[in-house]
Amino acid sequence: MTSTLSIHNWFKKKQAEKEVLGRERLDIPGGLWVKCYKCGQALFSKDLESNLKVCPKCNYHFKLTSTERIAQLADEKSFKEINANIRSKDFLGFNDAKPYAKRIKDSITKAKLNDAIVTGLGKICDLPCALGIMDFSFMGGSMGSVVGEKVTRLIEEAIVKKCPVIIFSASGGARMQEGIMSLMQMAKTSAALGRLRENSLPFISVLTDPTTGGTTASFAMLGDINLAEPGALICFAGPRVIEQTIRQKLPPGFQRAEYLLDHGMIDCVINRKDLKETLVKILRWFNNVQR
Ligand SMILES: [Zn+2]
């Protein structure tokens, strides 16, 4: 009781501090509590994690890292990463706020990843599949030459192994620092999916928040089945850009997963807690068709 009270008092104090400073985030040491970005509810980190990082109050789906996604989906120890060590190059000597070469180096250190996607072969409920998981924490999940190459190699590996491909997208679009090299990945990944189709192997695309730009305009929307997590922003140009261009207010929920479902752009919006079961159903269905 004492501890509940003291936590309560502590929260009141924090709230007062927040009001004084006008800050938006709950800045709590140790990361024990997280504030829901959508409803503002303070959530105990461990509870949030055991709820697959979904807010129990408003169903907001927090972003997952590639490691978290693999842990939630793949059978234990079944995931074997491929092409883990491909790193990007600064083809153009690109320099914005800082040189691209430095940006790559810093992102590798910060995200503890070599680029914005992790690919590999694994099993979900004993069903083999080729898995690609984009990671927004690496330069906003932008698709440069490495993401395109890894997606393509993953698809080629799936053709060799005769297994379905599942890719989770989370992307700010093409990586502008690589110019044309990133744009050509759209054609390359789409062509690879064409070859997957020729081999009668399925591609399941899972769109998570946010999936935008060149990623949406290429492989992410080319699934035989396109699934999305609730509330995910899925678009080519973002709502702010469109609003500024057409100078009109956009309808509520525009470009969110549910809106896309209503307009026939995707097949299903799936809660994270049902995702694994749904993927298993789909994989089994394709397995039966192929036999
Ligand atoms: Zn919430």
TrEMBL record:
Residues 32-291 form the CoA carboxyltransferase N-terminal domain. One of its GO terms (biological process) is malonyl-CoA biosynthetic process. It is an enzyme of class 2 (transferase). It is found in: Cytoplasm. InterPro entries: AcCoA_carboxyl_beta (IPR034733), Acetyl_CoA_COase_Trfase_b_su (IPR000438), ClpP/crotonase-like_dom_sf (IPR029045), COA_CT_N (IPR011762), Znf-ACC (IPR041010). It catalyses: N(6)-carboxybiotinyl-L-lysyl-[protein] + acetyl-CoA = N(6)-biotinyl-L-lysyl-[protein] + malonyl-CoA. Zn(2+) binds at C36, C39, C55, C58. The keyword ATP-binding applies. Belongs to the AccD/PCCB family. This is Acetyl-coenzyme A carboxylase carboxyl transferase subunit beta. The gene is accD.
